[in-house]
Predict the 3D structure of the following.
Amino acid sequence: MKNILFLSALTALSLASCKQNPEQKQPSQIVDLNKQPTIEKSSFGKTKDGQSLDLYTLKNVAGMTVTITNYGGTIVSWTAPDRNGKYEDITLGCDSISGYEKGVPYFGSIVGRYGNRIAKGKFSLEGKTYTLATNNGANHLHGGIKGFDKVVWNAMIVESPQPTLKLTYVSKDMEEGYPGNLSVEVIYTLLKDNSLKIEYSATTDKTTVVNLTNHAYFNLTGDMNNTILDHEIALNCDKFLPVDKTLIPTGELKSVEGTPFDFLTSQKIGARINDTLNEQIKFGGGYDHAWILKGQNTEGAMRSAAIVYEPKSGRAMEVLTTEPAIQFYTGNFLDGTIKGKGGVIYKKRSGFCLETEHYPDSPNQSKFPTTTLKPNQTYSTTTIYRFSVAK
Ligand code: BGC
């Protein structure tokens, strides 16, 4: 029943917006046959320690652009059309490398070796205890002090009908405390239907743990002076992971029913976000939790995880993934101290993240799906962010 409600969310979105803007014109769907998808390389300056960086601009025939730097594999900007065909940047980020190097909370970057938290920065594997860098109170967050978001990746333009960028990085044995040399590959492909496909893969020479994701912050209004509270979101998830006050999952898989965590039907992000009578909202300072996708997690099968709709612009985004969970984070820790692109101050709830992943703290929670990777195995996951315009 609830599944039907979720599936109807897209229809509901288009119906709702039809009512709101009956005379609004749709962007032209005519494709100029002379236009070709492109990928261009330019300079993104140098890191503090003198490493040259590049910026790759992927452009599809429809006109969507995604710029990606090899610093952290970071999505620096991403333009999407509104209902009038106007393309605007819908992600948070910095104008230059110095902004990223000052330390921003993972804007648009690849997160690894382990996305989200590992309790007290410790876990045991094959009888050995490993101690990781702790960078979030007593816990380890998003790969540690120098995670995959702060390293320079190798980048390669791949010859393909769609603009495709391949990034590779070798994370050394014991980097940030993790065992095994891990060879990681992340492939970004911009598809003609305004989808960005991200394919992650990794192999190791010693048993380790891996959980890769992308940490793009979205604001579909295209103006980061707005908060994201009026965006409407549906999550295809009937359970979520409650956390303790340090945001480590308690181990329970809790039903969303009757809680502010129920997004099986589309709801405004802001509708229940300040319900601090709910302990979980209080601990997160809003939403900062992993939701578990409904149904069976069959390896390699893509499922729709989330649909977001922004009523003013008409922009909608769907997230599809092979991962079993999605971290929905509502920018609760943005506090007005970061000046982002174009000098805009990013305040609390200027952006939201939908990070597809395995469950946080899985290395310490035997009942969670495993995040262990052995030398004879290949880690492989895919996530798609697909944009559309509601009529
Ligand atoms: C985490 C938040 C954290 C944010 C930025 C999210 O994935 O769940 O707690 O503040 O990333 O680091």
In short: Residues 15-389 form a domain with the Beta-galactosidase; Chain A, domain 5 fold (CATH 2.70.98.10). Residues 105-106, 116, 247, 288, 327, 329, 333, 355 surround beta-D-glucopyranose (CB under 6 Å).
